[in-house]
Amino acid sequence: MKALRFFIPALVLPYQLVSCTNVANYYLKSTKIDSNVSIIDGDTISFLQNDKKQTIRLFGIDAPETFKNNIQKLAKFENFYAHQARMYLTDMINNKELYYRFIKHDKYNRIIAFLCYKTSINTYSDVGLELVRNGLARVHYISVDSKHKYAVNEKNLVEYFYKLKAAENEAKIQRINIWQHAQKDVFYKP
């Protein structure tokens, strides 16, 4: 088992190094978010575009839900980690140049998209990947299984799935944040 712990990080590192380069090239074709960004929760933001409110749900990830009303059921640690994810997202993108790459609309008419911010050294960092890497979101609503409801088959989306899974596996091994607990204690909805 010890050998496996050292082996997996060696597999994850190439995904992390390649990620920034691929993301930078990918985001050159993206839309800049100009103003009024609001953080809704750990995987959703809103902003104004042409005087119209837009909402982005980050592609391929799921952060814990925040408590919204007395009838909503949450897992034991869900509200706690929901607030942690929201604060982390707020700190990560605050005062940053943001870009998104549209994928599709969901059933709530939100934009499902990749979200990146420009770093101080003029590279781009993928927000969803960072949340997963830091154990504040899980890989969800994406699959490479062709029979799955959220199956992807485009090359860049398949590659992204594997980057997310590598980051998630590393966070699980290190028991970072949500991975200190059983999934049923962090997510009410499996």
From TrEMBL:
InterPro entries: SNase_OB-fold_sf, Staphylococal_nuclease_OB-fold. PROSITE patterns: TNASE_3. The keyword Calcium does not apply. It comes from the Bacteria. Keywords: Endonuclease, Hydrolase, Nuclease. Residues 39-181 form the TNase-like domain. Signal peptide: none annotated. This is Nuclease. It comes from Mycoplasmopsis agalactiae.
